UniProtKB/TrEMBL annotation:
<feature type="compositionally biased region" description="Basic and acidic residues">
    <location>
        <begin position="14"/>
        <end position="23"/>
    </location>
</feature>
<dbReference type="GO" id="GO:0030149">
    <property type="term" value="P:sphingolipid catabolic process"/>
</dbReference>
<dbReference type="GO" id="GO:0016020">
    <property type="term" value="C:membrane"/>
</dbReference>
<dbReference type="GO" id="GO:0005783">
    <property type="term" value="C:endoplasmic reticulum"/>
</dbReference>
<dbReference type="GO" id="GO:0071944">
    <property type="term" value="C:cell periphery"/>
</dbReference>
<dbReference type="GO" id="GO:0046513">
    <property type="term" value="P:ceramide biosynthetic process"/>
</dbReference>
<dbReference type="InterPro" id="IPR036770">
    <property type="entry name" value="Ankyrin_rpt-contain_sf"/>
</dbReference>
<dbReference type="GO" id="GO:0004620">
    <property type="term" value="F:phospholipase activity"/>
</dbReference>
<protein>
    <submittedName>
        <fullName>Ankyrin repeat domain-containing protein</fullName>
    </submittedName>
</protein>
<feature type="region of interest" description="Disordered">
    <location>
        <begin position="1"/>
        <end position="23"/>
    </location>
</feature>
Length: 472
């Protein structure tokens, strides 16, 4: 009896000595770095970085902390951010639709269903969201949207073809009534998807040759372009069609763009300013223009606009130095595009002609504020003065940007507003903007107008979520 008790005591003592804890070794930086190589960027941001302080510090770069909504987001993290009753309180109408589009592109049906459950059907079941899913090749998302009654537009097949997604393309043809094939081989060619282009051409005996060859000149390599031009040369007779093909080659992002241009030139494809327009939009636009101009390609006001809207200051200066004149319409379009895109360097480089100055005074600030470009507005006020720049129209445009920082800056600098700003917030803005405007005494307009603006778009979240509307 005593011997058995002694044996039990010995076993208990032996079991009490646990093995040494080596778990900390799995968090050695070199091992964690290898683990991270098997994770998506969103998993690193939402899971790995939250494991402990050491991994948070190890993955502390901006790219490690950035969440990309167009890629799959862990569902628990998506619920944490977008599952609350006021999660979209600060999002404008366009931002809510953008969230739905990015979620559709990510392929996460669970996250998209969460948005539907949170009452965002008006933003999710939209043709822009369907197009985004098709362009990203997310077949399961397309199926979900179709089952939920999402509307679709005429470009659904074009988006699937441009993305090179044959499975989505076939599903659309088989499933969606009236989703007919309308010359989509050119979209596949422009995206450089030669295999899908060939497959589409088998089922398309009479393609849109102009669109097909222009797409190939832009997105395909030289050999593919040569084959298509040889095959369809008898159907390319009009000079405007041939000029379109040559212009697409001049703006091609492929490495052999110059070879394509030279080959088309030898076959008497006509020169046009459209070639310089396409070239001016690219980051290496200056080098392309410097090569095209000695060949005899003309310049035009459209080339100036293309360089300005792309923020290509060097190309813009090159074209202006060549003596291209700008009429008032061209100046207005150029100023609006540059201001909307936030290309402050372009605005500074523009010649101070009467047409440009008129456009800067009348059109630059609304275009900039609608897109949240505070730095452009600040520059305009400094150059022209607040009296000429800050108007009721600017306040109304700023609402659509969704930038509270911009709205606060305008208010602090005395920018006037009227009831149109409040109506724009109800129609295009966010709950947060409505409350902010009401708290600062912005005129609300006729009774019930804000309701009507929100209801016109079926925006139930705005109607139910903004406390200020309930107090009207």
């Amino acid at each position: 009896m005593r011997r058995r008790q002694a044996q039990r005591s010995a076993l208990q003592d032996e079991g009490s000595h646990t093995a040494p804890d080596r778990s900390h070794k799995c968090w050695m930086p070199e091992l964690v770095l290898r683990f991270a190589g098997f994770l998506t960027c969103n998993e690193v941001a939402f899971i790995l970085r939250l494991a402990n302080k050491a991994t948070a510090a190890q993955f502390g770069r901006p790219q490690d902390r950035t969440v990309r909504l167009s890629l799959p987001v862990p569902h628990h993290a998506f619920v944490w951010r977008w599952g609350g009753a006021r999660a979209m309180h600060s999002l404008t109408r366009s931002r809510r639709r953008q969230l739905a589009c990015l979620t559709a592109r990510s392929g996460s049906t669970a996250n998209l269903e969460l948005l539907l459950a949170r009452g965002a059907k008006g933003h999710v079941l939209d043709q822009e969201v369907f197009d985004a899913a098709a362009a990203a090749g997310q077949l399961e998302v397309c199926r979900l949207l179709w089952q939920q009654g999402c509307c679709y537009g005429p470009n659904l097949l074009h988006h699937a073809a441009a993305g090179g997604h044959g499975a989505v393309y076939e599903w659309c043809l088989e499933t969606i009534p009236g989703c007919a094939d309308h010359h989509t081989a050119g979209d596949a060619a422009r995206a450089g998807n030669v295999a899908l282009m060939d497959w589409l051409l088998l089922a398309e005996p009479s393609p849109n040759v102009s669109k097909l060859l222009a797409g190939a000149a832009s997105g395909c390599d030289w050999l593919t372009l040569v084959g298509l031009c040889t095959r369809y040369s008898w159907r390319v007779q009009l000079d405007r069609t041939r000029a379109r093909v040559l212009a697409a080659a001049a703006g091609s992002p492929t490495a052999d763009w110059r070879l394509k241009v030279e080959w088309l030139e030898l076959r008497w494809y006509p020169f046009s300013a459209a070639a310089c327009v396409e070239a001016a939009r690219l980051p290496d636009g200056l080098a392309r223009l410097q090569w095209l101009r000695p060949q005899g390609y003309p310049l035009s006001a459209e080339v100036v606009s293309a360089a300005a809207s792309s923020g290509n200051v060097e190309a813009l200066q090159f074209v202006l130095a060549a003596g291209v004149a700008l009429d008032d319409d061209a100046a207005q379009g150029m100023v609006e595009d540059a201001a909307a895109a936030g290309h402050l360097a372009v605005l500074r480089a523009l010649p101070q002609t009467p047409g440009v100055l008129r456009s800067l005074r009348s059109h630059a600030a609304p275009a900039a504020t609608e897109n949240g470009r505070l730095q452009v507005v600040t520059w305009l006020v400094g150059m022209l003065g607040g009296a000429q720049v800050l108007t009721e129209r600017v306040s109304k445009s700023a609402v659509r940007s969704g930038s509270m920082e911009l709205l606060a800056w305008l208010h602090a600098h005395g920018c006037p507003w009227d009831a149109s700003a409040f109506a724009a917030a109800a129609e295009w803005g966010s709950d947060e903007q409505l409350e902010w405007l009401a708290a600062r005494g912005c005129p609300m307009g006729a009774e019930g107008e804000a309701y009507m603006r929100a209801a016109a778009h079926g925006d139930l979240s705005m109607l139910h979520g903004a406390d200020v509307l309930a107090r009207l």
